[in-house]
Specification:
By secondary structure, this protein is mainly alpha-helical. The chain is built from 14 helices and eight strands.
Length: about 525
């Protein structure tokens, strides 16, 4: 039993050894096959690598040849460009050399001429010196002979001769001065008249006197009712916002706007036109349109000033002075439109200054600005004459001294310091003296209405004041926070007493004090 087990174990072990040997032989055979295959693959890869390397080598060689050809062509271009520039530089050098040689030859000829003329000059100078010496000797001999003949020395004879010549010259000079003065008296007045007449004839303008009313045309009389509004609330709102009296009468398709201030009238006219065109007419809309129109008029004033200075050829005028020039369009002097008057004076001054040989641009400048004191702002002193006020503004905004003096002296308030001042004075008189140019009554009437409004503004709490109905009514709008109902009644009485004591006027003046309280809230 034990022997069988041993045989079995030995058989198993022997089988394992034989299997191990067979396995190793098989692995060795497989390994040799793999090595052979690997060698074959390596040889293929090496062949492919050699082929690829040859191909890349040929490509690189071709690229290098192309790059070389490209660089060679660029180099040739650079060389050609340099050769061209060098050829041009050589040509310029040759031209300059030829030019310099020409200049040298010319210079040589000039030097030769100069030397020849210098020799000639020196020769003539020697001849003149010899002749001068001979002349001096001859003069000395003649003086000695004259002294012997006249028994006088040279100095004594000279003094007698000078005294006799002085007397004759004095008499001749007096006679010449007398004749010149007589001739100047005869011709000066005629020449001055010629200059003035020529100036007036060259600057001929039409005259138009400003009125205190404007007519607003409407398409139909139905619009009148909408302008008046329920119980007259619309027309009252327009009058309160603009300070213009609106007269709605039986005149067909027309409404009359009455106010001494042409700016207010223009604001009211434009506002009415916008309201009627839009169709919405009620107090809130009226106030909105009037505010917008006031801004539009302010912008238009600036544009008018700019156009005026451009038309007259005046440059570098201060913007504030341009604004004052624009405001002249809505001002009048004795009924004569102030802007038209100032433009005319500027043109007259320019022509007259040119006739007299002065600076026409400076004269135009002074002529345009001579009446800016008639368009004062809220800070202006109303007691100061308009000529002095205009001069102060011109000095403030950097105008030249001659211009400022001409503005201040054109009504003789100050001394005239240049010829520009009398020219401005004369041209101002010429423009104002044209037939139909001015109307004294209108100016005094406008001044009375302005004084009437100024009286109201002198009281505390007054917000707005408008003189309407040709000065027969003074409408005063007060601030409701400062003036209550009782104070409003007292204020109306106080203003009426002040008007009665301080002013002279025909008829009666009704003083109406208006006090409004508004509550405004915004829903979001």
């Amino acid at each position: 039993m034990e022997n069988s087990i041993i045989f079995a174990v030995g058989g198993v072990i022997l089988g394992l050894i034989i299997g191990f040997i067979i396995t190793k032989r098989l692995e060795k055979n497989n390994a040799s096959k793999l090595v052979k295959e690997a060698k074959k693959n390596a040889e293929l890869i090496l062949k492919e690598a050699k082929v690829e390397g040859e191909r890349l080598k040929k490509d690189k060689i071709l690229q290098a040849k192309e790059k070389f050809i490209e660089l060679k062509s660029e180099h040739e271009k650079v060389i050609l460009s340099r050769d061209k520039k060098m050829a041009e530089a050589e040509k310029r050098t040759r031209d300059k050399e030829s030019q310099i040689s020409n200049e040298l030859s010319k210079g040589k000829k000039l030097n030769e001429n100069l030397e020849r003329k210098t020799k000639d000059y020196n020769h003539r100078l020697d001849v003149l010196e010899k002749k001068q010496e001979a002349l001096d000797k001859l003069h000395k001999n003649q003086v000695q002979q004259l002294e012997v003949i006249s028994s006088l020395s040279a100095e004594e004879a000279k003094e007698q001769l000078v005294e006799s010549l002085k007397g004759e010259a004095k008499n001749d000079a007096m006679a010449f001065i007398q004749s010149a003065l007589e001739e100047a008296k005869l011709t000066a007045e005629q020449e001055a008249k010629k200059v003035i007449i020529n100036t007036i004839q060259r600057i001929g303008t039409e005259e138009a006197v400003d009125n205190c009313v404007s007519v607003f045309n409407i398409e139909s009389d139905d619009v009148k009712g909408r302008i008046i509004g329920r119980e007259g609330r619309n027309i009252r709102a327009i009058e309160a916002a603009t300070g213009v009296e609106i007269i709605v009468d039986d005149t067909p398709e027309a409404i009359i706007l009455s106010c001494f201030d042409s700016v207010r009238r223009e604001i009211a006219r434009l506002s009415l036109h916008k309201l009627v065109t839009d169709g919405r007419i009620h107090p809130a809309r009226i106030e909105e349109i009037v505010k917008k129109t006031k801004k539009q008029i302010e912008q238009e004033i600036i544009e008018v000033g700019k156009r005026t200075v451009i038309d007259l050829g005046i440059h570098n005028l201060n913007p504030e002075l341009i604004k004052m020039v624009g405001r002249m369009k809505y001002r009048s002097s004795y009924g004569q439109n102030l802007l038209q008057h100032s433009r005319e004076v500027a043109k007259l001054c320019g022509v007259m200054a040119a006739e007299l040989g002065l600076n026409p641009k400076l004269a135009k400048r002074a002529g345009l600005l001579h009446d800016i004191g008639k368009v004062p702002d809220a800070e202006a002193d109303m007691e100061t004459p308009h000529a002095i006020l205009g001069m102060q503004w011109a000095e403030k905004y950097g105008e030249k001294e001659d211009v400022c003096n001409a503005i201040g002296a054109h009504h003789d308030e100050i001394e005239m310091k240049s010829l520009l001042a009398p020219i401005i004075q004369v041209c101002d008189a010429i423009s104002g003296a044209r037939p139909g140019a001015r109307r004294q009554v209108l100016d005094s009437y406008i001044q009375r209405l302005k004084d009437l409004e100024d009286i109201a503004f002198g009281f505390t709490g007054v917000k707005k004041a408008y003189a309407i109905q040709a000065g027969r009514e003074l409408r005063v709008i007060v601030e409701s926070e400062k003036v209550d109902d009782q104070k409003a009644a007292d204020l109306s009485f106080s203003i009426s007493q002040k008007v009665q004591t301080d002013m002279t006027y025909p008829g009666q003046v009704k003083v109406t004090v208006i006090r409004e309280t508004r509550a405004v809230n915004i829903a979001k």
